[in-house]
């Protein structure tokens, strides 16, 4: 993901322009959730294997609460995953006849949920 989609200049530009970006390992989020962190608990509940990109918006109810606006999953939403990439447990890679640009899928998703 980092070497492809998140290295694309157009994707980088859009993310830097409109979002606060961060990366976190799910194991670390789970530890924080176990220690009572409300946002971490929320993220753990929303997370799906293998890699999630979650787009959150703060709520006015609490400075530590967020609303999920949308999310993308590296396995479900990006077709044509390389065969050496690990599939989720009990799943097989699905061959896609038509290749789609991960950049295009990502940018269309952002446009759909956040405008251009």
Report helical residue fraction: 25-40%
How much strand content do the residues show?
5-15%
Query: Tell me about the biggest sheet?
Result: 2 strands, antiparallel
Strand order of the largest sheet: 1-2
The coarse silhouette is: globular
The structure class reads: alpha+beta
Ranges where pLDDT stays below 50 over 5 or more residues in a row are none
Describe this structure in words.
With 116 residues, the chain is an alpha+beta fold. The protein has one domain. 35% of the residues lie in helices and 13% in strands. It contains four helices and two strands. The protein has helices at 9-18, 26-34, 38-46, 102-114; strands at 52-58, 66-73. Strands 1-2 form a two-stranded antiparallel ribbon. β1 and β2 (66-73) form a beta hairpin. α2 packs across α3 (38-46). The longest helix is centred in the last third of the chain and has 13 residues, at 102-114. It starts with 8 loop residues before the first helix and ends with a helix.
Produce a short descriptive summary.
The chain has one domain.
Key descriptive features of the protein:
116 residues, alpha+beta, two-stranded antiparallel sheet, 4 helices
In terms of topology, how is this protein built?
Layout: H1 9-18, H2 26-34, H3 38-46, E1 52-58, E2 66-73, H4 102-114
Antiparallel strand pairs: 1-2
Helix pairs in contact: 2-3
